[in-house]
Design goal:
Elements (H helix, E strand, L loop, with lengths): L2 H20 L14 H33 L20 E8 L2 E7 L6 E7 L5 E7 L12
Antiparallel strand pairs: 1-2, 2-3, 3-4
Length: 143
Amino acid sequence: MTRDNKTANAGASTRADDDDDTRLKLSMFLPADDDTPSLRTTKYAVLIMGVILIVGFMVVIARIVYLTSRMDSSTNIQPAVTLPIAEGEDVRSMALSDNRLAIQFVGPDAKDRSVAVIDLKTGRIITRIHFAPQPVSAAPTGR
């Protein structure tokens, strides 16, 4: 054997040894007899946290699968509600409270104002309030 062959063979055996060292073995994660107490504690902590992570991911995935498979197709979808408004009237604002929707309307001259309250579960108009402008002298004083 020449000197070049010995060098080539030595390099090949070093690479093979490196491959053996890089394999993950379960024993490298478990505490060994010659580990210091802090290293042993760290290994146990890493093992426990890894198990917690895996179990946590499994729970999250199981919950997602459960919720998507349990979706109710019997949800009551209400038909569209038609709310009659006067010619030229516009929606000024809306407010939602529980299952009620209040819609404020303003007329073309900004004096005609009204509010409609709709029950979203039934789709019917609960009440409609019209605001009638009054002259300043006729307005109540609050006394």
